Amino acid sequence: MSRRCELTGVGPMVGHNVSHSNIKTKRRFLPALSPASLQSEALGQTFRLRVTNAALRTLDFKGGLDAFLLKASDDDLSARALKIKRQVKAKLAEQAAA
C-alpha cells in the first residue's frame, strides 16, 4: 500500500537530518496517514479511506466528503476517490433532474 493520501495526493517528501556538526544525511518525511470512515450524504454510504490528518480537517472545513470531492482536482484523487466522485456527481445530477 502506498504512503499517499487518497484525497489530497500528499506523499513522502525528502530532506536531510542535520547533525550538530552540520553533516547532512538523507531522510524521508512521511505523511501522517490514518484510516478514516467517511460518510457521503448524497450516496448514504460510508467509505474507508487512508487520508492525512490535515485532509480530515479540510473535510470538516469544506462541509463533508461530497463537497470536498466536487471541488477537488482529479489529478490529486486516487482511483477509489475518483470512483466515489463520479458516483456523487451522478447521484446529484439524478436528483436535480427529478
Q: Spans with pLDDT under 50 lasting ≥5 residues?
A: none
The strand line-up of the biggest sheet is 1-2
Percentage of residues in helical conformation: 25-40%
Q: Approximately what portion of the residues adopt beta-strand conformation?
A: 25-35%
How many H/I helices? 3
Radius of gyration: 17 Å
Elements, N to C (H/E): EEEEHHH
Distance from N terminus to C terminus (CA atoms, Å) equals 40 Å
User: Main β-sheet: number of strands, strand sense, barrel status?
Assistant: 2 strands, antiparallel
Tell me, rounded to a whole number, the average pLDDT. 95
- The class by helix and strand makeup works out as alpha+beta
Overall body shape: elongated
How many DSSP-defined strands? 4
Characterization of this structure:
With 98 residues, the chain is an alpha+beta fold. 37% of the residues lie in helices and 29% in strands. It is built from three helices and four strands. Strands 1-2 form a two-stranded antiparallel sheet. It has a two-stranded antiparallel sheet with strand order 3-4. The termini are far apart. 16% of the residues are buried.
Topology of helices and strands:
Blueprint: E1 13-18, E2 24-29, E3 33-40, E4 45-52, H1 53-62, H2 65-71, H3 79-97
Antiparallel strand pairs: 1-2, 3-4
